[in-house]
Structure formats: C-alpha cells, structure tokens
Design goal:
With about 350 residues, this protein is α/β, with parallel strands linked by helices. The protein is built from ten helices and twelve strands. The chain has two domains: about 5-260, TIM Barrel, CATH 3.20.20.70; about 270-335, Type Iii Antifreeze Protein Isoform Hplc 12. It has an eight-stranded parallel sheet with strand order 5-2-1-10-9-8-7-6.
C-alpha cells in the first residue's frame, strides 16, 4: 500500500468526543508517533440507532459508566465542516485521512474531500447497499471482518466486486475490547488474502504491540490501532487505546520487523559476502604437489577460506595436470591447471 510497507493507522474514531481542537491535537500526536494515516467515523447516529433506551457500559477514568448509546454517538458526530477541517490538518502534517461512513451520503462527502480510502466497519459488513455504493465510488475500500463468518465475508467481497470495485483490503479483526490473546487468530490475515485474492491487514484491539508486530510479520498490508492522547479522557474507547508513546513503540517494532523480513530471495545477504569468503571451503592441495602432477581425489581436501575452487567443483580438477608446483594447504585455482577451466 505504501512501497510494500505496512500502512500504520491511528484509529482516532470517537476519542475526540466531538471536540475538534482535541481531534487536531490527536492527529498531530499520531503523526509525530509515526502513523501513516488516521481514521475517523463520519456516521449519522440515526443510521444505526433509533432506540434511545439502549445503553452501553464501559470503563472511563477508572470508573464503570453506563450511558445511552444514542447520546454517546450523537455527541461525537462529525459535520461536513468538521471532516474538511480534519482533512486539512492531516494534509498539514502529511498523514492520510480516511473515515468510516454509515450511509451513501457519508461516502459522497468523503469522495468530495478526495480521501484515499474508505473504511467499512465490522458492524456494517452485512450492509450490502453501502458496500455497493463504496465500490461504485471508485475509491479503494477496506472491509473489516470482525464477528463475520466466511460466508458473510464472501458475500461482502462478491457484492463489492460485482458493483465494479477493484481495490479491496480485508482486515482480520476481533470485535472485543481488549481482545483476549486466544481470540486474536492472526492466521486469518493469510487466510483472507488466499481465499479472496486481495490484500489483507489487521485491525488490532489487543493490549500492547505484540499482535500488531506479528501481523506485519505475516504480511499484513495495514495495521490499525485505536489511538488517544490520554487514557484518562472521558469516553468508551479511551481506556484500551494506544497512547502516543505506545504507538511510537509499535511503529519502531513493525519497521524493524519489515527490515528483517527482507525481499525473500534466496541469495547471500550484503552482510554475508565477506563471511562467504572467510567461512566457506576451497579445494586445497593435501600435500606438496610438483608441476606436471595429474590430480586425483586423494590429492585434494577442503579447507577455509573460499579463495579457490569450491568443493562442488572437485570434478573439474581430477585428471588435470598442474602447470606449477603447489604447496600443501594451498588453494587450487583454475590457473594451476595446464588447460585452465
């Protein structure tokens, strides 16, 4: 997605609490921590909630809070003006801006802003009309697969492709906060890519950086992590979100992992070229040999360094006459032979 490097996304989501100054502060902190992109949510609460009696219990500032879901989401809605402001801030600090819409109108608003990606949340994986609209926008799209069966993922992918969508990323995701280690199932990353023939990544809801780094090692093209500037801020997602310091550590460790992953070619590495000559073996004369001597297998042994013919080339020496004296232990070269190889 970015020169074969994993795209590292700070998921600000609703952690801004409707405060655009705080949202901008979070964008700048994410950029400073090494994020490549930040993600918000440009939903309309009425798109998915109508029952004002539904509640949600969460941790905030060390206490357990039970609150109306409708109120939680309503206070964090972003207007079109808010989206434009946040996009400008992202442009200023050179991070990508994208968001999760909950309607065709939300997709259109993001398209008008010129976003590089659209994100469909795990809760909306079954909203096929929205996925069709995302596909028809022509904007590369990310589908998160939390809570999904293979059949549900297949239906979403088929819907996207039949609507004309081409660039698609599927995110392995577990919709529990924080995710227990035995529920992460990172191998879904490779399974999603293999089964559906597209890029795959990881939406990380675990505590710490280990799962994200392992995901990069498995070939995730994108890792998304909830992000806040302060876990003591009010709100349902703050307590399990990554701080700038933690996100920065995640970035460092993933970039180091990518460096270690390399290009995959079977060949000596740059650092091995000197070692190859020092530690590999050569064909050497077992004893002093006079000029004119016809070499046999009994005349040859193998020793360091690899400055002569390789052991696998011993057959090129046997039966050949020497043009000069060779001392015992001396590497055997093509130039020692009457008719050089």
């Amino acid at each position: 997605m970015m020169d074969d490097r994993c795209l590292l996304v700070a998921e600000i989501g609703i952690n801004h609490n409707g405060d655009m100054d705080l949202a901008e502060e979070m964008i700048r902190a994410a950029a400073k921590a090494g994020a490549d992109a930040v993600k918000f949510q440009n939903y309309r609460t009425e798109d998915f909630l109508s029952d004002h009696t539904l509640t949600y219990t969460y941790k905030s500032r060390g206490a357990e809070i039970t609150e109306s879901q409708f109120k939680i989401f309503k206070r964090c809605e972003l207007s079109e003006g808010d989206l434009a402001r946040l996009k400008r801030c992202c442009d200023e600090v050179s991070v990508l801006f994208f968001s999760t819409p909950t309607s065709a109108e939300g997709v259109d608003s993001l398209k008008a802003l010129g976003v590089s990606w659209l994100k469909n949340g795990s809760d909306y994986l079954g909203h096929l009309p929205l996925i069709r609209h995302m596909a028809r926008s022509g904007i590369p799209t990310i589908l998160s697969t939390g809570m999904a069966t293979e059949e549900e993922v297949a239906m979403a992918v088929q819907t996207f492709r039949e609507a004309g969508g081409h660039e698609l990323v599927l995110l392995a995701c577990t919709s529990s906060y924080p995710t227990p280690l035995d529920c992460v199932n990172l191998r879904r990353i490779t399974t999603l890519a293999a089964k559906f023939g597209c890029l795959s990544g990881f939406s990380d809801h675990t505590a710490g950086w280990e799962a994200a780094v392992a995901a990069a090692g498995l070939g995730a093209c994108m890792v998304e992590k909830h992000f806040t500037t302060d876990r003591n801020l009010p709100g349902p997602d703050q307590w399990f979100s990554s701080t700038p310091e933690e996100f920065s550590e995640l970035v460092v460790r993933i970039r180091r992992t990518e460096t270690m992953l390399g290009h995959g070619e079977i060949a000596p590495t740059r650092s091995e070229l000197d070692a190859r000559e020092q530690f590999r073996l050569s064909c050497v004369a077992k004893n002093d040999l006079p000029a004119g001597h016809v070499l046999s297998e009994q005349d040859i042994t193998f020793r360091r360094p690899a400055t002569g013919l390789a052991p696998c080339d011993i057959h090129l020496l046997i039966g050949r006459a020497l043009v000069a004296d060779v001392s015992g232990g001396e590497s055997l070269l093509s130039t020692h032979l009457k008719n050089p190889i």
